Amino acid sequence: MYEKIFADAVPNKALINHVISTPTVTSEEGCNIQCFIEIACESYNFGPKEGGGHVCELSDSDAIRDPLDWITKQGFLYVGTQNPCAKAQCPVNARCHSDFEYDTYACVCMPGFTGNHCEGTLQELAVLSCQSLSTATHTSGIYWVDPDGGSP
């Protein structure tokens, strides 16, 4: 069953650098509903009225995972979700993605990293030919063939 539980609102705070959508809403409840509907939404910023409605910024992260992006922003209201990533132990080179439907999470390697623990870079896993795989020293089983010595 799909369930998204929202945490208490924090006045004069906002999460920046993770906004995935900016619907215009008439109330804070409308922003809450928009975040509930958007599967990737893990928090939202509800702002002052502009033109025909209020600012509503849906984010794919939260203040727990990205505390440096949680800033003071007068007139805004920050609302996070209770999500599976709050307890996640993802590797340094990985990003946690919540699955609210099954109350689970997945650690996804950041661009340029690969392996079970995101420990290898794509450059480290490059081989010049299929034949050179027999002497390769990495054992993750993931390689890319780079006959020209370029980049993926």
Automatic annotation (TrEMBL):
Is the keyword Transcription assigned to this protein?
no
Taxonomy of the source species: Eukaryota, Metazoa, Cnidaria, Anthozoa, Hexacorallia
The record ties this protein, via Pfam families, to: PAN_1
Q: What is this protein called?
A: EGF-like domain-containing protein
Q: Which cysteines are joined by disulfide bonds?
A: 90-107, 109-118
Segments forming domain EGF-like: 81-119
Give the UniProt keywords, A-Z: Disulfide bond, EGF-like domain
Look up and give the organism this protein is from.
Desmophyllum pertusum
- Superkingdom of the organism of origin: Eukaryota
